[in-house]
Amino acid sequence: MADAAINNREPTVAAAAPVETKERSKEVIIKLVEPVQAHGETVKELKFRRPTGGDIMALEGGYPININWQTGQITPNPPVMGMMMSTLAMVPTSTIKNLDAEDWSTCAHALMGFFAPGAQAMQY
Questions:
Q1: Which of 28, 40, 64, 76 could crosslink 108 through cysteines, CB 3.0-4.6 Å?
Q2: What is the domain extent for residue 99?
Q3: Does some domain include residue 85?
């Protein structure tokens, strides 16, 4: 009889833990390995604001990132990302072009998350 009671029980579902939503930062600050000139001053960090749809629409030559949909790999599109970096940091493109390669890569990769589709888009 005990076996019958065990076999007739309804399955129990553990309550899901609440999903924490991470507050989106309003800016990204990158400390540079090598200082660079911007507006006639030496800059030791670049402060990037969040991009807007208008920033993306104003770009010529493509999108700031390339996505390989088969592998999921995301890489920067250097010319377009460079233009976006200049816009978001409010520095001349010459400043971005003069960044040390390590700094350029750090900045580009820090910004790539702004351009990849979010989890909500992936359900379509």
A1: 76
A2: 27-115
A3: yes
